[in-house]
Amino acid sequence: MGSGDTETEEAARGICILFVDDDPNQREVYQRRLERQGYQVDLAKSADSAVARLREDRPHVIVLDIAMPGRDGLSALQEILDIDPSVPVIIHTAYPSYAENFLSWAADAYIEKSSDIEPLVWAIETAVRNLTH
């Protein structure tokens, strides 16, 4: 493990991420990978459950999928920002076309799903840094 990994784990300690995705395999894979980075990860399987979780307990960062059955992530993003505009939201989707939707511009970052977790971790680290400044 390099020193950069240790620094990431130190920065991640105590940071709670609400990871929202309708795909159980995606939730499990990303939960494991983010927990290895040192983050605490709470899972939600739908936009509605993410909003309900936010009302119960504020996470430090929300990672939000867009294309989900029922209510989509962009609709949830609007409500999340109405509830607590200070919570950073990172859109995490397989569809680059949503980046053109003006609703997605309200998110703190827009990350396309990939086997490379580094862009997502970088966006989370940036969001957390911005919270502390």
CATH fold annotation? Rossmann fold
Give the overall form.
globular
Our estimate of the beta-strand percent is 15-25%
Give the CATH H-level superfamily: Response regulator
- Uncertain spans, ≥5 residues at pLDDT below 50? none
Give a quick rundown of the structure.
With 133 residues, the chain is α/β, with parallel strands linked by helices. The protein has five helices and five strands.
Lay out the secondary structure.
Layout: H1 3-12, E1 16-20, H2 24-36, E2 40-44, H3 47-56, E3 61-64, H4 73-83, E4 89-93, E5 109-112, H5 118-131
Parallel strand pairs: 1-2, 1-3, 3-4, 4-5
What does this structure look like?
The structure is a single chain. The chain contains 5 helices and 5 strands, in the order αβαβαβαββα. Helix 3 (47-56) packs parallel to helix 4. The chain has 133 residues and is of the alpha/beta class. It has a single domain (3-131), classed as Rossmann fold (3-Layer(aba) Sandwich), CATH 3.40.50.2300. The longest helix is centred in the C-terminal third of the chain and has 14 residues, at 118-131. The chain has a 5-stranded parallel beta sheet. Helices cover 44% and strands 17% of the residues. The N and C termini lie far apart (29 Å). The protein has helices spanning 3-12, 24-36, 47-56, 73-83, 118-131, and strands at 16-20, 40-44, 61-64, 89-93, 109-112.
